Amino acid sequence: MLEHMLVAVNAVLPSFLIIALGLLVCRRGMLDEGSLGKFNSVAFRVFLPVQIFKNIYDAPMGEVFDLRLLLFCFFGLLLAGGLALFAASRLEPRFDRRGVMAQGMFRANYVLLGMPLVTSLFGEAGAGLAAMLIAVNIPIYNTLSVVFLDLYAGGRVEARKLIRDVLKNPLIDATALGLLAKAVHLPVYAVTPLASAFKSVAAVATPLCLFILGGSFAPASVRGYARSLWITLAFKLLLMPGLAIAAAAALGIRGVPLAVVMMSFGAPTAVNSYTMARELGGDSELAAGIVVFGTALSCLSLFCWIVLLRATGLF
Selecting from 1.20.1530.20, 3.40.50.300, 1.10.10.10, 3.30.505.50, what CATH number does the domain 2-311 have? Predict the structure, then answer.
């Protein structure tokens, strides 16, 4: 079991080093808040859409296919999103924190942490099945997050504005284009120089978001949102994966598919949730705290879930 703990730590540690670099650069005065805001806007409108498009386009749907797992994660994430929105609206009085809490409760860092851990547990058999779920998980994570953040950004709900903002959001557009390109087998990588540049731009997205997060993170401000932070993390790391694992086990899902379910619901909140919160008017300090503390605590929570599922013979 120790090796799985080490995999989680090794997946998390590079992220914290980049966060620390961003924090150091801004503490030294090399970047100010205005510069970070411009970087965040570029990440949101350029680098993240390219990364999302690439992740969806590269998902191996034809090679590995498990319809039951796909349907479970599709409807399960929708239900988890609904539960998160309901809980945030009931537990948090501040509008600008509700959307941030809702996305923090259900959105997982599936690609960067979930997939490597499933691969560590089950090898190539796990890698293929985990990659397949990208085409389901990423669109749901992004679409619901945009809805949640936009829903509460202005202090009141306007249905027409909400629909318009969702449809013109660059992450939603990238998701739709990725699914379309995959469906029609668009030869995105046909021209080698363009393909190389495309992959390089996608690779920049996560480090850039981590750097911006580090530059904006203020440890001293945690006290002001501690209650909201710990409620969100309790949902994200304990309640959501617990409910999903119990439901999947009751339906007879075992082994690799159950590990994929565990990571789809139990991996810590995705890094780009901070970028989205800052761009769409949510409480960016709370969003930063959810990512930083959630990622750190996930090393322990995921280890405990793995030990429990191994002990009960579920995988």
Answer: 1.20.1530.20
